Amino acid sequence: MRTVKVMLVSLALLAVSPASFANDLKVGVVNASVILDKSPQKERALKRLETEFSARSKSLEAKSRELRSAQEQLQKDAAILSSDERETRERKVLGDQRELKRLQDEYSEDLSIRRNEELRKLEEEIAETIVSVAEKENYDLVLYQGVIFASEAVDITEKVLQQLQAR
User: What is the C-alpha separation between 15 and 120, in angstroms, rounded?
Assistant: First the structure.
């Protein structure tokens, strides 16, 4: 929302400014999707998440296999089990299903929270890099998100990406 307000104010200033001022204005645009897709920081963040959550993921997969095996075994043995034994094993399988579902939900929630944390860090680093490039190259205005069209003449995405890769 703040970005949209900044863009509207900037465009309003351009509309009421003298033509000579607009000609001297140095504008840059950064393609957000390219930066997010190609930045090495994104790859490092994904690797951190993978490392952090791989043990839990493998544990959930193993529990899921065990549950499927128990369900299959119960189906095979159902005809020869007493009704009490069958009910006991069915309750155990249902309890294991609930526990697995709870663990999967916790895993998904924790992963989502951590992914959002990593995304916020990445966005902050990208914003700092854009400001750095803008200050170094004397840009008056740099647009990042919410741009529908920008010509290659004002696109500074590669410059920002190069600086991100240098970090």
Answer: 34
Strands 141-143 and 27-29: parallel
> Quick check: 46 and 115 in contact, CB under 8 A?
no
pLDDT of residue 136: 93
pLDDT tens-place string over residues 136-164: 999 999 998 878 777 788 889 899 999 98
Contacts of 97 (CB under 8 A, 6+ apart): 67
**In this structure, which amino acid lies at residue 161?**
L
Average model confidence (pLDDT) for the chain?
86
Dihedrals φ, ψ of 142, to 5°? -125, 125
Angle, helices 157-166/40-77, rounded to nearest 10 degrees: 80
Q: CA–CA separation, 71 vs 86, rounded Å? A: 11
Phi-psi group of 7: left, alpha or beta (phi > 0 → left; psi -120 to 50 → alpha; rest → beta): alpha
Environment class of 5 (CB within 10 Å of its CB; exposed 0-12, middle 13-18, buried 19+) = exposed
